[in-house]
Write a structure and sequence with these properties.
Blueprint (H helix, E strand, L loop, with lengths): L2 E7 L4 H11 L6 E8 L2 E8 L2 H7 L8 E7 L14 E2 L5 E9 L2 H10 L12 H13 L2 H11 L2 E9 L5 E6 L4 E4 L3 E5 L11 E4 L5 E5 L2 E5 L11 E2 L15 H7 L1 H9 L3 E2 L2 E2 L14 E6 L1 H17 L2 E6 L3 H4 L7 E7 L5 H12 L3 E6 L5 H5 L2 E4 L12 H20 L9 H8 L2 H11 L2 H7 L5 E6 L2 H17 L2 E6 L17 E4 L5 H13 L4 E6 L10 E5 L4 H22 L18
Helix pairs in contact: 3-4, 4-5, 7-12, 7-14, 8-12, 8-16, 12-18, 14-18, 15-18, 16-18
The chain binds fructose -6-phosphate.
Length: 602
């Protein structure tokens, strides 16, 4: 949540900062701002609204070869011009952008006000430039003052700061992501790589406690004691093209259509001679595991349900827990417990917290993530990448598919190590069909009737999604996507639960999208018929030859395949229904209100 960027080098900074912020808007879009440094001091330009609003308010490009920028998801204070970042000290000599939450800002603010500092915003961030100024009076060395300031902060932060008259950018991190981009003639700092991927793929993932100082021709990293720190340079294998919208109107549509490629990358090299292989997880890795706990939030939680069901079927004790509930709901944990954290961004605060709690209790951890270098990939004992490529649309689409496939394979890998488990009777058929999944998704994308269905059901009161077994995960995901981008009331249920309460909401104005996979669909059929008897139109979503074929009013068909993959194909149809419904309702599809892609606060 919140995106920060900084740039220093030859030539003008403003254009790069603004483009970088546009690429980071999936992290928040309540307000935007930049500060650039030129011969006549630090100039701040900021406003509520999106980066496009900021651009339209700029009277030409502000001049300066170094600067910082911010796009906000509000935590402290409403999305006003005053609360937009960058924030400055009283005289405007120090400007700071920040992602995170400063827990002790109240007392720091009171102290600083008592010393004569004047504040203009409701934000927690504003204490930081004032602290830097305050310490500058003591130490007369800005790097030391920044170090002292961040040392005073409690909570989480990734910050970047510039100071009047200095050809430098200062930055530090604790608990919020910050990555350094290294080009020939310029350096960048950002919350995430897409901010500067057009310029460079050489990066350094900064660690908690790092403080970095950038000059036009040099940079150095130190710790909070001022000791030099060495960090490895990595090369990112994301293509800048992947981070753009291409020929599509929205990132979401592009990412839905990118699924055949994403899935091919996810699968590549992971099924060999009928066996599942993960490069860094050799046979025997999971030999001691007795219990597996999946922890995740939102869409990732729905993908985790996939993994949990398959592992449970193999005979291993398995739980799937919403990460935000982990601390209060988990059962006993020990060194034979594997906690699998499923998180696209690798930065979700609730998921990171769950893993830290589990680690403290003695469990082993494994991250399943899309982002190399993310916090989870560095904190967990092991990491597996879903290889979906950058996802910019706030509504997760291709990453759900890649997560579910990765988890399905991972569960086979885990089960192979644990003597008490029984491999699925049709495991070979399942793995063989997986190779065709990308082409099946392609077929769905080419032949879908999702737009027609979205149009036909547009005036409904509510939208219900039901499914059984793996279809339950898809139903929950279908409903989440629908409500997230259309703002219409949508709920997902396990098919059999409909009659235990939700049926009271069912009318002729509440279409039921019934997910069928070819496994356990009888329950879905019975419950769909019960809803249909109350007037609800039934849309069956699944393989053509399915249990609801004579019952459903409408069909969204997918190619016949193994039940494990049929649910994922059904999900592609549901992604498209949500997309087209949102488009017909003229919603801001890539930036749904109140949301941000990476939820780094609890
Ligand atoms: C919904 C969506 C969210 C995320 C959730 C977890 O479309 O994107 O529900 O799935 O915030 O995010 P990650 O996977 O980054 O941990």
């Amino acid at each position: 949540m919140c995106g920060i960027i900084a740039r220093i080098g030859q030539g003008e900074a403003a254009d790069t900062l603004l483009t970088g912020l546009e690429n980071l808007e999936y992290r928040g879009y309540d307000s935007a701002g930049i500060a650039v440094q030129n011969g006549s001091g630090v100039k701040v330009h900021k406003c509520s609204g999106e980066v496009s609003e900021l651009k339209s308010q700029l009277d030409g490009q502000p001049h300066g070869n170094l600067g910082i920028g911010h796009t906000r998801w509000s935590t402290h204070g409403p999305p006003t011009d005053e609360n937009a970042h960058p924030h400055t000290d009283t005289v405007g000599d120090v400007a700071v952008v920040h992602n995170g939450v400063i827990d002790n800002y109240d007392e720091l603010k009171a102290d600083l006000q008592a010393k004569g500092h004047e504040f203009e915003s409701d934000t927690d961030t504003e204490v930081i430039p004032h602290l830097i100024t305050e310490y500058l009076d003591d130490v007369d060395d800005t790097e030391a003052a920044v170090r002292q300031a961040v040392d005073t902060l409690e909570g989480s932060y990734a910050i970047a700061a510039i100071v009047d008259g200095e050809e430098r950018v200062y930055a530090a991190r604790k608990g919020s992501p910050l990555v350094l981009g290294l080009d020939d003639e310029e350096w960048f700092l950002a919350s995430d790589v897409p901010a500067f991927l057009d310029h460079t793929d050489e990066v350094i993932y900064l660690e908690d406690g790092d403080l970095v100082t950038l000059e036009p021709n040099a940079y150095w990293i130190t710790d909070l004691e001022g000791q030099p720190v060495d960090r490895e340079v990595d090369t990112v294998d994301w293509d800048p093209e992947d981070a753009g919208k291409g020929e599509y109107d929205h990132y979401m549509l592009k990412e839905i259509h990118n699924q055949p490629t994403a899935l091919s990358n996810t699968i590549e090299g992971r099924v060999e001679d009928g066996d599942v292989a993960f490069e860094d997880l050799p046979a025997g890795t999971f030999a001691d595991i007795e219990t597996v706990q999946f922890v995740a939030c939102g869409t990732s939680y729905h993908a985790a349900m996939y993994g949990a069901q398959l592992l449970r079927e193999a005979g291993l004790r398995t739980e799937v827990i919403r990460a935000s509930e982990y601390e209060s709901t988990t059962g006993p944990v020990d060194e034979n417990t594997l906690v699998v954290a499923v998180t696209q961004s690798g930065e979700t605060a609730d998921t990171l917290d769950a893993v830290r709690t589990a680690t403290d209790r003695g469990a082993r951890s494994l991250a399943v993530t899309n982002v190399v270098g993310s916090t989870i990939s560095r904190e967990a004992d092991d990491a597996v990448y879903i290889r979906a490529g950058p996802e910019v649309g706030v509504a997760a689409t291709k990453t759900y598919s890649s997560q579910a496939v990765t988890l399905s394979l991972l569960t086979q890998r885990i089960a192979a190590d644990v003597p008490e488990t029984t491999p699925a009777a049709d495991r070979d058929a399942m793995l063989a069909e997986l190779q065709h999944l990308p082409e099946y998704v392609e077929q769905v994308l080419e032949s879908t009737r999702a737009e027609t269905l979205a149009e036909e059901t547009l005036d409904s009161d509510s939208y219900f999604f039901i499914g059984n077994g793996l279809g339950h995960s898809v139903a929950l995901e279908g409903a989440l996507k629908f409500k997230e981008i259309t703002y219409e009331h949508a709920e997902g249920f396990a098919s059999g639960q409909l009659k235990h309460g939700p049926l009271a909401l069912v009318t002729e104005a509440s279409p039921i999208f019934a997910v069928v996979t070819g496994d356990g669909d009888e329950k879905t059929k019975t419950n769909a018929i019960e809803a249909q008897s109350r007037g609800a139109p039934i849309v069956a979503v699944g393989p053509e030859e399915h249990a609801l074929v004579d019952v459903a009013d409408e069909h969204l068909s997918v190619p016949a395949t193994h039940p494990v993959w049929a649910g994922l194909l059904a999900n592609v149809q549901l992604q498209l229904v949500s997309y087209h419904a949102a488009e017909l309702l003229d919603r801001p599809i890539d930036k749904p209100r109140n949301l941000a892609k990476s939820v780094t606060v609890e």
